[in-house]
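Continuing the series of single-chain predictions for the mutant panel. This is the parent chain; the variants come on the following pages.
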Amino acid sequence: MVLKSILMDKSREFVLKTIVAELPPEVMLTRIEFEGPEIAIYVKNRRAIADKLALIKAIAKKVKKRVVVRIDPKARLPPEQAKEKILEIVPKDAGIDPKSMVFDKTLGEVWIKAEKPGIVIGKGATLRHLIMAETGWRPVVLRASPLESKALNTVINHILSESDYRLNFLRYIGDRIHRDPLFKTNYVRITALGGFMEVGRSAILLETRESRILLDIGVNVGGPDYERMYPYIDIDSIKIEELDAVVIHMPI
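Parent structure:
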C-alpha cells in the first residue's frame, strides 16, 4: 500500500522497497514521504521504533539518504498529556519552561526551550529518543534565552503557523531531490553577488540545467554607500520570476 502511493522512478523505487523490506512488521509502518533532503518514515508503534534505532541507521546507510522517523498522528499523545510526560522524563535541572513548550501537529514535533539543552537530549540522545517513544512527538530542543526575546518568539510562532505550507513545500522539493536525474551531463554555475571578499552582503546565484536558486541575502552594515552595502541583485542574470527558490539561513 505504501509503494502504490507514489509514481516512482528507479531511484525512489529502490528507497521505498529497501525501507519496506528492512522494517519489521511490529513498527507498523503507515507511509513513507520524501520531505526535502530527508526520507520520513511514519509508524504507529512508537515504542517499537525506539528499539530499532540501529536498524534505522543501517537503512539510511544502505539507501544513502537521511532518514527520520515520525510517529503517525493517531499514535501521538494529546499535547497536554505529552507535556506532562516530557516533564516526568527530563530532569528538573534542565530548566524547561513548561509554558514555552509548543507542539507542531503537522510535522509531529514538540519545541522545547531549556536552559541546558544537553540534559534534555541526554547522552547519546537517549532522552530525546525516549521522549519520542513515550509521547509520539519528535523533540526539537532549543536553548532558552536568559532574557525573553519577542523577536525570537515571533519567528517561532510564524514558523509554526506556516507548518502546512512548510510540509507541502518539503514534499515538493523532496520529489525533485529524490528523482532520477533528467540530464546525463552535470552542470552547475555559481555566481558571486557579494560577500566573497568581505563580511556581509552575502548572496550566491546557483544555476543548474533545470533550476535557479538564490542563496542568502545579506547586508554589509558598515558599507559607506548603497552600492557597497547590498549584493548585486540588479544584474541581468537575476529575474525574480524565474527563480525556483530563495534560501535564507536563519539560526534560531
